């Protein structure tokens, strides 16, 4: 005789903290927002279009008590300030910023125009700089804060599967993380980055041909794509109050494609 034990997800317990996530329209950003919300954070999901992030906020909490959405163009410092103000007006404060928004574009090195280069860098690097400035100043004035920047394997190995502009920008994310980490530490603010390798996300399966995807998997020492849920859990760990001694770090999660 076998006994079936029914299990249910652990109830969400509000931890009293507020997190703002950029680039939460879909993909990794949406997974991060869901993970933080499940961990007890009130979450402001932001993106370049209100529709998808509002859908995500409604999914997390239809009442709007612990989840909300707003438009944020990460190339605009004013938009970051407005997002911070939106969080403060709704929940009274903010504790965590996840700089996730990014944009990649596969182009041959010598075909990248100055305009192409600037467009990719402005989203992937300017956004991190502006977000760290706006939220870092606010967090330091309150004596506490956590900033987690999403880097990439491309910024460490030269971007073998992405454009040079994307790789250069993501390399800059690691450096900016260190700069802000050093500057903000005395204000009780930590700044860290997570650098994922290829991830098992719907967008990857939609845009990469099956044969090429198999080749990518074969090139990874562990033989599999990374888990977006694990990346999000790592972000949540770095965003926690207990992570006070982690600062200026880049956590590599790439299946062994880059080792140091």
UniProtKB/TrEMBL annotation:
Query: Which PROSITE patterns does the UniProt entry name for this protein?
Result: ADH_SHORT
Can you say what this protein is called?
3-oxoacyl-[acyl-carrier protein] reductase
Q: Does the keyword Oxidoreductase apply?
A: yes
One GO MF term, please? 3-oxoacyl-[acyl-carrier-protein] reductase (NADPH) activity
Q: Which family does it belong to?
A: Belongs to the short-chain dehydrogenases/reductases (SDR) family.
Q: Which Pfam families match?
A: adh_short_C2
Specify the domain of life of the species encoding this protein.
Answer: Bacteria
Q: Known PANTHER family for this protein?
A: 3-OXOACYL-(ACYL-CARRIER-PROTEIN) REDUCTASE (PTHR42879), 3-OXOACYL-[ACYL-CARRIER-PROTEIN] REDUCTASE FABG (PTHR42879:SF2)
Q: Which UniProt keywords apply?
A: Oxidoreductase
Q: Which InterPro entries match?
A: KR_dom, NAD(P)-bd_dom_sf, Sc_DH/Rdtase_CS, SDR, SDR_fam
Checking SMART domains in the record gives: PKS_KR
Q: Which EC number(s) does the record attach to this protein?
A: 1.1.1.100
SUPFAM superfamilies (UniProt xref)? NAD(P)-binding Rossmann-fold domains
Q: Which GO terms describe its biological process?
A: monocarboxylic acid metabolic process
Residue span(s) of domain Ketoreductase: 17-201
Q: Which residues form a coiled coil?
A: none
Q: Does the keyword Oxidoreductase apply?
A: yes
